[in-house]
Amino acid sequence: MVERVDGGGTLGSVPLVTKHPFLSDGWFIEVRRLHDAVGGAAPEGADIRMNLMITGTPFDGDLPMHMAAAAGRADWGKGHLDDADVTLTLGYDTARAIFVDGNPQAAIEAFMAGKIIVQGDITKLMVMQSTGPGASTSELTKALQEITE
Fold it and tell me: How many whole angstroms separate alpha carbon 7 and alpha carbon 20?
């Protein structure tokens, strides 16, 4: 905690937020912590195991990662799952717009422009999209914005 001071008065205690580059090791550690803090919640009815290949990252080239949701719980991290339903390949900037900025329109526009490549069971992806965001999504998006450089 850090005490914030404005002029002569204290504004109160605020948590110290460490920022990390999007998709860096430190970012993934913070995402795990934040995700656990909201109970690992996933949108109701979401049931998907998805691999993602994020291209053009500013470190280590392309980055394999995964996202999974089932029974109201979600998980995501580095590396691919062995038994994914679908695999998406998308650029770093598009991934940032979707995950950090919380911009679903960016996903639609990138898909329509051929900037997101989908392999596997696209119906699982469509069902996930139709379930909408979970109750904790806006909280998590705000937290992701706070920790991301």
Answer: 30
Residue 143: Cβ within 10 Å count: 19
Q: Which CATH architecture has domain 2-147?
A: 2-Layer Sandwich (3.30)
Distance from C-alpha of 57 to C-alpha of 22, rounded to nearest angstrom? 9
Interval 57-102: pLDDT, tens: 998 799 999 999 888 778 889 999 999 999 999 999 999 998 898 8
Question: How many residues are given for the chain?
Answer: 149
- Single out the residue of 149, 147, 127 nearest to residue 37, CA to CA: 147
Virtual torsion, Cα 136, 139, 143, 144, nearest 10 deg? 60
How is residue 85 written in tokens? Answer: 């339903």
Tell whether the model's pLDDT for residue 138 goes beyond 50: yes
Strand partners, 64: 53
Chain position carrying tokens 């934040």: 34
